[in-house]
Amino acid sequence: MHESSSRRHDIDVARAADALVEMLDAACGMMRVPFDRARMRRLLESRLEALGDNSSDGALPGSEALLDSAATCGLRMDLLTLDAEGAVAAFRPGAPVARWERDVDGSMRWLVIVDVRGSKVGYRMSEAGEVVHWASVSEFSAMCQRPAVATAWIGMEPLLACGSDASPHADGHSHSTPLR
Predict the structure, then answer these.
(1) Which regions of the chain does DSSP assign to beta strands (E)?
(2) Mean pLDDT lowest among 91-100, 130-139, 141-150
(3) Higher per-residue confidence, 180 vs 27
(4) 141-179 in b/e burial notation, b at 16+ Cβ within 10 A?
(5) Which domain range does residue 130 map to?
(6) Helix, strand and coil in the chain, % to nearest 5
(7) Residue 62: how many CA atoms within 13 Å on its side-chain side?
(8) Would residue 137 count as lying in a domain?
(9) pLDDT score recorded for residue 61
(10) Which of 30, 40, 54, 165 is close enough to 114 for a disulfide, judged by CB 3.0 to 4.6 Å?
(11) Into how many domains does the chain fold?
(12) Is 177 within a domain?
């Protein structure tokens, strides 16, 4: 068996796709971005099967497949290397920050920062469904494994919608956009 074939099966594709779809659903709901769970699940399964698990490189399991699929669900995603406090600082309203990891049993757990209010962090976790938990930044950092160590996170934001070539005004005339 050659290496690329064995690498593709290092993760349980169906379980990984399910976990990533749940995480994306949480993030898209927070951003109010429409999300087609079934379509994204099929796309992620296909990309995970093709790309395999890149976590041996220090990346998040399946991150290459997720980044590859981002535009399909109307998102821009950036891979960030941050400690827990840096992830909180990277959060912007409407732009969640997320991470996930493979558990010892092979399942994937995720966490999405959905709000920051002063010194409080609002986050959702795979284990808690739709419940938003709140913690101080220091409590949140302590909850994260290896809180002071820079690890991989994904910053997300909605893609800007592109309109028509012209911008109509109330008086009936329009201007072409400068990007043609």
Answers:
(1) 75-82, 97-102, 108-117, 120-125, 133-136, 151-158, 166-168, 174-176
(2) 141-150
(3) 27
(4) beebeeeeeebbbbbbbbeeeeeeeeeeeeeeeeeeeee
(5) 3-159
(6) 40, 30, 35
(7) 34
(8) yes
(9) 62
(10) 30
(11) 1
(12) no
Confidence of residue 155 (pLDDT cuts 50, 70, 90): very high
Confidence class for position 157, pLDDT limits 50, 70, 90: very high
Q: Which amino acid is at 60?
A: L
Do residues 61 and 100 lie in contact, with contact meaning Cβ atoms separated by under 8 Å? yes
∠ at Cα 115 (112, 117), nearest 5°? 145
pLDDT at 177: 44
Tokens read off for 138 = 């220091």
Question: Is residue 79 classed as helix, strand or coil in its secondary structure?
Answer: strand
Asked if 25 and 126 touch (Cβ cutoff 8 Å), the reply is: no
- Here the CATH number for the domain that contains residue 116 is 3.90.70.10
- Asked whether the beta carbons of 31 and 96 are under 8 A apart, the reply is yes
Q: Are 72 and 40 in contact (CB under 8 A)?
A: yes
Q: Domain for residue 49, yes or no?
A: yes
